[in-house]
Write a structure and sequence with these properties.
The protein is of the alpha/beta class and about 450 residues long. It has helices at about 5-10, 35-40, 75-100, 120-130, 155-160, 175-180, 190-200, 220-230, 260-275, 330-340, 345, 360-370, 380-385, 390, 395-400, 415-420, 420-430, 430-440; strands spanning about 30-35, 50-55, 55, 70, 105-110, 140-145, 165-170, 205-210, 235-240, 280, 285, 305-310, 315, 320, 350-355, 375, 405-410, 410-415. The protein folds into two domains: about 5-15 and about 355-440, Arc Repressor Mutant, subunit A, CATH 1.10.10; about 25-290, pyruvate-formate lyase- activating enzyme, CATH 3.80.30.20. Bound molecules: S-adenosylmethionine and iron/sulfur cluster (SF4).
C-alpha cells in the first residue's frame, strides 16, 4: 500500500526522533536465542565501535525517557555502581573470548551520565578498553557524555588523561527557570564554570546540547541560550525539540506547540548557519573545520557496534540486540540489578533483540542515510545491495514531489523543508511490520 504523504506535510513535524532503525521498542525475546560467537561469526570485526552505557544520573530530568536511574537506590549507592562496572567488565571479557579477533576503532561512553561515575570507576572503563580490547586510546576517537553537575575537574582530568577527544554536555538552556520548568535543577554559573574547564583542558571537540520548546521560551530567550553556548566556541551543537513522552515527569503537560517549536527551530538553524555552522541532521550542527575525511566519526548508528550494559544496543547486519528496556524508575532499577547479577554464561547469550531481513537492512540504510547531510547515494546503495533504491522504495518519489528532498550529485538529499520534518519523515519510512511491533510494545 502506497504511503500517504499528508502524514508528513499536514501532520505534526514532531512525531518521533529516529535515533536508529528499527526502534528499540521492536525488540522482543528472540524465538531462537543465539550466542555472541554465532551472532558475530559472519561479520567483519576489524573496525568495530565500542559503546558502554552508563545508566546513572545525578537526577532524573522531567523530560527524559532514556534508560537511566537517578541516584540509584535499593541498596548502597556505591555498591550498586561498583557491581554494575564489574558486570560491564565481565561482559567485555565474554565478548573478547567469543570474538577474539575483534578490533575497535571508535569508542564512546554514553548514558545516562557517564561522569556520574567516580573517577576510579571511569578509569576502570578506559582500562577495559585498553587491556581487554587492545585499544590505543591515543589514536582511537573517543566520546563521552556529561552533565554540568557531574563533570568535575577530577573526572574531566581522567577523561583527558585517557585522550578523550569529544566531550558532550547536556545544558538544555542557560536560563535556570526554563530548565527547572521541565524538572531539571541546574545553575547557570555551574554550567559556565564547567564549560570553561572543558575548554581550558583542551578537548578538541566540545558538543553542547540545547533544547527548544521549553515552557515560556521566547525567541529572545532562545537566542540568549544559543549566544551563551557560542561563547564557548563549541565544535558541535545539538538543538533538541522538547518531546513530552509517556512515563516521564512532564508527561502530564498537555501541550500542543508545534508552531512554537518550528519557529524556534528555524531561528536556531539560521542563527547557527549565519555563524558558520553546517547542519548535519535535524538536530546536529557543527563547525566545518571539524569535518575532514579523517576527522573522527562518532555515528552510533552504523553496523558493527558492540554495546556493553543494559540499554546499550549492539548491531550486526542481521541482528540488533540489547537487554529488556524500561523508562519508569522501578523497571529501570530491576533491569540494572538483573544485569549486574547475570552469570558469565548468560552474558554470552543473546536472547532479546530483532532480526533484520534483507528488506529491513535496505530500509535501515536508506532511512539513516537520507536523514543525514551526506544523503542517500544511489551508487553506494547499489554497490551494497545490488539494486536501485528508487525501485526498492518507490515512496521516496513522494518525498521528492513534496519538496522534502531533491537530487544532487548522485544522491538524494533532504531540503530545508525535509530537515525540518525529519522527525515525521523517519517514522513515515518505517515498514508496516516495524510500526506494528512498536505499537504493540508494552512500555514499562
Ligand atoms: C544523554 S543526555 C545528555 C547528557 C547528560 N545526561 C545531561 O543530560 O546533561 C542526551 C540529550 O537528550 C536530550 N533529550 C532527552 N530527552 C529529551 C526530550 N524529551 N526532548 C528533547 N530532548 C531530550 C537532551 O538534550 C539531553 O542532553
Ligand atoms: S537528560 Fe541527562 S541527566 Fe537528565 S535524566 Fe536524561 S540522561 Fe539523565
Amino acid at each position: 500500500m502506497m504511503k500517504d504523504i499528508k502524514r508528513i506535510t499536514n501532520g505534526s513535524p514532531y512525531q518521533q526522533y529516529l535515533y536508529s532503525y528499527p526502534h528499540k521498542t521492536t525488540y522482543r525475546p528472540l524465538a531462537q536465542p543465539t550466542s555472541l560467537q554465532e551472532a558475530w561469526s559472519r561479520e567483519g570485526v576489524d573496525d568495530l565501535f565500542l559503546y558502554m552505557h552508563i545508566p546513572f544520573c545525578a537526577m532524573r530530568c522531567g523530560f527524559c525517557n532514556l534508560f537511566t536511574s537517578a541516584k540509584p537506590r535499593g541498596g548502597e549507592q556505591g555498591a550498586i555502581v561498583k557491581s554494575y562496572v564489574d558486570a560491564i567488565e565481565r561482559q567485555a571479557l565474554q565478548f573478547r573470548e567469543a570474538v577474539p579477533h575483534a578490533r575497535f576503532s571508535r569508542f564512546a561512553l554514553g548514558g545516562g551520565t557517564p561522569t556520574y561515575l567516580e573517577p576510579e570507576d571511569l578509569q576502570r572503563l578506559f582500562a577495559i578498553a585498553k587491556n581487554l580490547f587492545g585499544m590505543d586510546l591515543k589514536i582511537t576517537p573517543t566520546s563521552v557524555e556529561s552533565s554540568p553537575e557531574t563533570a568535575s575537574l577530577e573526572r574531566l582530568t581522567v577523561l583527558r588523561e585517557n585522550h578523550v577527544d569529544r566531550i558532550s554536555i547536556g545544558v538544555q538552556s542557560f536560563i535556570d527557570e526554563e530548565v527547572r520548568s521541565v524538572g531539571r535543577a541546574q545553575k547557570r554559573e555551574e554550567v559556565c564554570q564547567t564549560l570553561t574547564n572543558m575548554r581550558e583542558m583542551g578537548f578538541p571537540i566540545l558538543n553542547i546540547d540545547l533544547m527548544y520548546g521549553l515552557p515560556g521560551q521566547t525567541q529572545e530567550r532562545w537566542q540568549y541560550s544559543i549566544d551563551e553556548a557560542l561563547q564557548f566556541a563549541p565544535e558541535e551543537i545539538y538543538l533538541y525539540p522538547l518531546y513530552v513522552r509517556p512515563l516521564t515527569g512532564v508527561s502530564k503537560l498537555a501541550r500542543t506547540w508545534d508552531d512554537e517549536r518550528v519557529a524556534l527551530y528555524r531561528f536556531g538553524r539560521d542563527y547557527l548557519r549565519a555563524r558558520g555552522y553546517e547542519q548535519v541532521s535535524m538536530r546536529m550542527f557543527r563547525k566545518p573545520l571539524a569535518r575532514t575525511d579523517d576527522a573522527p566519526k562518532y555515528s552510533c548508528q552504523e553496523d558493527g557496534m558492540v554495546g556493553l550494559g543494559p540499554g546499550a544496543r549492539s548491531y550486526t547486519r542481521e541482528l540488533h540486540y540489547s537487554t529488556d528496556y524500561a523508562v519508569a524508575a522501578a523497571g529501570v532499577r530491576e533491569i540494572i540489578s538483573d544485569y549486574s547479577a547475570r552469570s558469565d554464561q548468560t552474558l554470552r547469550e543473546i536472547d532479546y533483540g530483532t532480526r533484520l531481513n534483507e528488506a529491513e537492512q535496505k530500509r535501515r540504510y536508506a532511512i539513516l542515510s537520507l536523514l543525514h547531510i551526506d544523503g542517500l547515494r544511489y551508487a553506494d546503495y547499489r554497490e551494497r545491495f545490488g539494486g536501485a533504491v528508487q525501485e526498492d522504495f518507490p515512496e521516496l518519489a513522494l518525498l521528492r514531489e513534496a519538496g522534502l528532498c531533491s537530487d544532487r550529485d548522485g544522491a538524494l538529499l533532504l531540503t530545508d523543508a525535509g530537515f525540518e520534518r525529519a522527525d515525521a519523515i523517519g517514522p513515515w519510512l518505517h515498514s508496516e511490520e516495524v510500526d506494528a511491533l512498536m505499537t504493540d510494545f508494552d512500555l514499562k
